[in-house]
Structure formats: C-alpha cells, structure tokens
Amino acid sequence: MPRLFSLLFFLFTTAFFANADDGYRLWLKYDLVSNPALRKEYASIARFITCSENDPVSKTACLELQTGLQGLLGRPVPIQSSLSKPGTIELLLLPKGTADTDNLGKEGFKIQSARGRISITAAQPAGLLYGAFELLRYMQTEGKTGDLFGVHRPRIQLRMLNHWDNPLGTIERGYAGASLWKWYELPETIDPRYIDYARANASIGINAVVLNNVNASARFLTPEYLLKVKALADVFRPYGIKVFLSINFASPKILGKLKTSDPLDPQVRAWWQGKVREVYSYVPDFGGFLVKANSEGEPGPQEHGRTHADGANMLAEAFRPHGGLVIWRAFVYSPDPRGDRFKEAYQEFKPLDGQFASNVVVQVKNGPIDFQPREPFHPLFGAMPKTPLAMEFQITQEYLGFSTNLVYLAPLFKECLDSDTYARGNGSAVARVIDGTIHDYPITVMAGVANTGSDRNWTGHPMSQANWYAFGRLAWDHQLSSARIAEEWTRMTLTQESSAVTTIKELLLGSRETYVRFATPLGLHHIMGQGIHFGPEPWLMRSARPDWTSIYYHRADSLGLGFDRTAQGSNALNLYAPEVQKQWGYPDSCPLPYLLWFHHIPWDKPLSTGRTLWDELCVQYYAGADEVAAMQARWKTVKSYVDPEWYADVQGRLAAQHREALNWRDACVLYFQTFSKKPLPANLVPPKRTLEEMKRIVEIYQLR
Ligand code: GCW
Q1: Residue 393 φ/ψ, nearest 5 degrees
Q2: Which of 487, 461, 495 has the alpha carbon at shortest distance from 638?
Q3: Which of 86, 115, 302, 475 has CA 20 to 30 A from 248's CA?
Q4: Which of 249, 370, 393 to mutate to test the pocket of ligand 1 (most atoms within 8 A of CB)?
Q5: CA dist., res. 212 & res. 287, Å (int)
Q6: Low-confidence residues in the chain, pLDDT < 70
Q7: What is the set of active-site residues?
Q8: 21 C-beta closer than 6 A to ligand 1
Q9: pLDDT score at 15
Q10: What is the pTM of this model?
C-alpha cells in the first residue's frame, strides 16, 4: 500500500510539474526528493514526528514539519505525542532556567542526532518553528548548502516586513498586483492566502510585519479597522509573527477631533495613551508603531515646534505599560536647492542621539538618498551610539526596474551590511552596528519594504521571490553569503540539477551589478524617470522640488560629471569616520563604483581602468546592456531543467529588461554626450536613435 501511495504521489507531483508551476508555492514546494538514495536516507530518519507541546506556535511547527516531510518523502509521516522510537524527529521545549535555554534565547534552537533520533530543542515555541523549517530546508536543498546540526540563533531580534499598502488596496511602489489585505472583506472573511503568507515568512524567520503604508491613513486606528487588524494578527500569531501599524501623526486631530497634535500637549498625550490601550485590547501582543513624520508632506512634531525625539518619546510613553515599540523613521529631507539631501537626515538626527526613550528605535534607510541601485552606507550608522538603529532595506524594486528586471538584491544588502563604519575602530561593520554588537543596542531590527502583492506568484517577477527569501535569511544571519542564499533558493524553488543550479546562481549573483552598469554606473544616482522612478530621465531639470530632479544629482557640465561632496563641495564626506573619508575622499583612489557619488570628475580624466571618464562611462553603459543579452542566453541553457511556465515568464521579462537596458544606455550616453562633446570610444557602435527620440520614449511613461 505505501508503495502504491508513493507511486501515485510521485505521478501527481511530476504531473504537476509538467503542467506548469505558477509560482504560488514559493520556496515551500516540498516536491518529492528526486535523488532516490537521499530520499531513502531521509525516509529512514523521518518515520515519525513526536510533538508533546500544546501551544499554538509549537503545534504549527509540528504541522509544518509534517506537511513538508510528507511532500518530500511521498508518504504520510504520523505525529505522535509519546516518545520516541528510532526514526523519530522529536520537537521539544527545554525546561526553563537551564544554561541551554539561556543560550538559545527566545528564538534559537538546537538540532542533534542521537540513538537514531533527531531532536529539535528550543527554549520557546518560536525556536521549534524555526528549527522545523531549518530541517526542511536541509532536505529541500539535499544537504548541499549548510550544516544542520548544532545551535542556530538569529542575530537580529525583529526581522520585519514593511508593507506600503493603502486602505483601498493599492500598494505604494508595489509591482506585484494589489494588496494582499482585503480590508473590505475583513474581519469576516479570512483569505487562506494570509496563512500562506505567514508560512512563507516564518520559514525564513520573519517575525514582524507592518501592515500599512508609512504614508499612513488614520483609519487604521479606528475601532472598525482595529477589528480587521486583530483578525490578521490572529492568523499570524501561530506563525510567530507580530503585527505593527504605521500611524498618521496628526491622528489626535483627525480622529480625536483635538485642536492640535502637539506631542507636548497633555490632551494629545492622553489621547495617544488611550488609543494605544485600545489597540492592545484588540491585539494583546501588538508590536508597536512605525512613524514617518515631517517627511514628504507627512505630519509630524516639527509643525508644533517640537523635535523628532519629542514626537517619538510621547508615543513611547504610551507604549511603556504594554511593552510595545516606536520605530521612528529617519527618512527626512528638506527642499533646499543649496543644500545636499545626502546630509539632511544626519543633521536632524545626530544631535538627538541620547534623547530617545528606551523603547524607541530609529529606522534608517541603507543609503543617504533613497534606495538607489547603489548607495554608500548611510552616515548615521556610524553616528548614533546611544540610539538603537534599525536597518531599512527596500525589497520592492522601486529604483531597480520594477517587476520587469531580474535583480537579485542580496549583494546590495550585503554591500551595505559589510561596510565598515569605523564607529568603534576597525571592524565596526554596519551589520555589527544594527545587530547590537558595537553599541550594545538593547533592541535590534532589520526591516524590508515588501515586494509582495496579489499576483499569483506573489512578487510579479518570479525571480524576485529570491529577494523576499534573501531578506529574511540575511535578517536571521547577516553572515550568510549571497551565493549560499542564491543556491538555497534555487534548489528549493527551481531545480536540483547541478549545472542549472550553478548557472542560475551566477545569473542571480551578477544581476545587480548589471543593473547598476546600464542604469547608474560609476556612482551616478537619482537620474530615473520622474515620479514613477522607472527608466532614464537624466535631463530632468524641473520638478516640484529641486532634489527631485536629476541635474541636482549628476551635475553634468562642460567640465565633467558627478556630485562633489568633498570639502570643496557639499562636504557630506565629513559625516563619515576619518577612515571612510580616506577611502572615498580622493578622486584618484576612490573606488569607481562610488566615484561620482563624491567627486565631480573631468571628462578626460584617466581612471584606474586606463580609460578617461567619458570613455569609461560609455563602456559601462554598453557592457551593462550587453550583459542583459548574455543573461538571456544563459537563461536559455536552463530551459530543460526548470518548469516551462516559469521559464517562459522569465524569458519574456528578460527580453523586456533588455529593451529597457538599451533605453537607459542610449538615453544616458546621448544626453551626457551633450556635455562631454566627445565621440564614443572607437569600438562602440553609437546609438541608432537620437536624444530627441529617447526623450519621447521616456515621456510616454509620464503620460496619464
Ligand atoms: O522611496 C521613496 C518613495 C516614496 C516613499 C518614500 C518613503 C512611502 O518614492 O514612495 O513613500 O520613499 O520611504 O517614505
């Protein structure tokens, strides 16, 4: 009988594969282990599961393990409550107060093997959940990506998705359909997709989500919406996920009908205290508020002559009795044409270091401008020893070609995390600042702006699933390499065939640098299409604000190109430690990827490559576009190893990406040529289109 069952299961899963994979199952496919010897081995260690814990999170752990194993092994794996024959996988909470439990903390786990049994032990239920997924990942990747046995612990406490989802179902900067949250159907209807979303997050260690956009509607704090929030929190809780909300700082006026939202006004303070108490009556383990204040038109304490610290501390006081957090964003900048946006968050927040209450975290974007394809790390990471800083990455590809471009973001995340701030001398990488090692931060947070939406495959571009995956894995352990994460994801999602795995891994690993080359090489930044942030618009001179134009950033003129941020220019470099200034401060030694971030370079200055700036710029743009063509060719080689629907989808998107790369190349080369007044290097074929044609193509995106 079991044989017949496994045969049927096998036929079912292979038929499923042959009939196309729509991407819904993400990396949680649990298809039969294809290598028969391994399947036999795994089957012998996973004949039973023992679960004696009764809390909701431990139960989820057992059920997830069971679901996964049944798929991988092609036969049922019964759960039993008593101990424990050989061939059992046992999930067990350790008694409180032992050295082991202290060591494992709230979410760590230990996997061991003894007497023919595997045990996953943890001090708290969340550890069992993450341990179950670790074991499954090991089998899903056929043991090829890391060690199973030993102690595993997250390096960051709050591993969080920020959804920029609006009440009417749209998503700001979302490229994968509408919001997953069906506010008008909640709380009565629970879309089963909420559960699948929670499973995916739990499987990569994400334990917190902010449900709504930081440009926040006040309606989420009304009783009607709190009921909806409660419904989602109830779904996510058994997966170890806490819910947070973005708030509108003017809520006391908007909802409370008070005359002011001044954070030092006693009535305002009382209103927030009451409101926070009310939130906890719906969601007893509510996480806290995320706040965008005095940024891009959002209300905040400064309208009342108060500081960010005054605003944050007022909310922190309201959360203190409940154990919640205030996550206050540092993404602020003012429209000063003579200023340098690069410096503004630093100038506003650095003086406030030490003034924030103990349950406030300041959330800083990875770079000083805004999620560009490449940015130097934000100078605040080296400058706030007394304030826990959270990392904010963007997983959704606002400036990285939306969902038509294949851009694997782990290398971008790692580049920032691995950058040395020198906050406490050598070895003060951004990662060690935000994980609390350098300054002993009591609270540690890594947030990612989500790329999920209602598209069947969740992320629009199917390969962008890898970015959701990579974010979670790096938030759990920022020491993991981009290559390992790419391999895990590829094996779990696409194929186990080793040459195809290698090809796909290489495709992923090179993709971000390719994007940088054809869009913003050598440290160019913020020269994309106005408003929508898609395609090139380097000629953009006028906008509602000077720091929303392109010329503000690239500063092209007859002499050269780039933003001088040395002492002769805006002196933004001065915000970094002397060691960092030394690294980036001189045009002759500044690494080329950062060159135009910090220097205005003459067109005919020879660079370390032996070419002049102008020639190098052209070479980069052409190489970037050629690399997309090479990506198309490489993708073709994996055709017989990946699902046909998936294959065709990626093939189409790569073709679109190639068209867009050529647009970037031609638009930028032709536009910058109007300043350099030089011909292209001899071996490059000049664009067939004119600058006027390129402008028309880009203008199409601006039409209503
Ligand atoms: O990247 C910019 C986006 C805005 C966004 C803002 C922010 C939510 O263009 O859409 O608003 O940053 O991070 O607050």
Answers
A1: -100, 160
A2: 495
A3: 475
A4: 370
A5: 14
A6: 1-19, 83-84
A7: 296, 370, 398
A8: no
A9: 40
A10: 0.97
